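Quick entry, no commentary yet.
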Amino acid sequence: MNDIVGARRERLHEASHELPGTLQILLVGGAFVIVGFLFLFGAQNPRAHMLMVVAVSSLLAFNLLLALLLDHPFAGKVSVSNTPFRQGALAHFFEGRD
């Protein structure tokens, strides 16, 4: 039983962590640097250049959103559920908690 409680405590401890502040700064700062470099490399056609900037900016925004979603795996619409824990051999631990 001590192993089960220890494993649960470790899962809860790991789930409470977030991305380190340094990594968050590097992700956001890197996105701004990449978009800034795109303005330095111009194309002959202004529409093509703007399309390139918008496409790369959209991709970077998607990646930042993905990092945020993966940082909180137990929250939101796309999340890890506890249904497997509530069924089968562990079901008697959850009786009366709903």
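second:
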Amino acid sequence: MKKPIKILTVTVLVVSVSLFVLSIGAKISGIYINTTPSLPMGFYRIVHEPIVSGAYVAFCPPQNEVFDQALARGYIGRGNCPGGYSLLLKRVLAMAGDTVLIDQAGIVVNGEHLPNSVQLKADANNQPLPQYRFDAVLDDAEYLLLSDLNPQSFDARYFGFIARDQIKQVVRPIFTWRH
């Protein structure tokens, strides 16, 4: 009777160690593994391309109260970015010269309302979410980063634009799947 439990324990241990080693190997080889619903789950590799609208990017969040709260509530993970934040992957949906409006109704870029961009007032635990407001033209060092797939993503609708120096890499999906 104890034999199946021992086999299960060993199997779980082997799978866990294998996934850990795979994630280290992926990181060393310039591959990110996305397990969040903000983008399609899967593998993304670093590419040496310019940041353009529609591109996926990896960025370190700025160290501030909004991201401190996001870390404390589990919206983002711990990592090697300043403030102890993890790198985040998002899509560039506006950049220099684009007119951006962020309010309770969502995000509008150059007069077009972005899908899945409506701000929620509270998270799944009924904790209030930041209610960011913005209405201006982005300058050369400002980027609007968000998920165009997940209406519950923690993204620009709550923290606004991201400065160019926060963006670390452009990444491309190499193998992804929907949740």
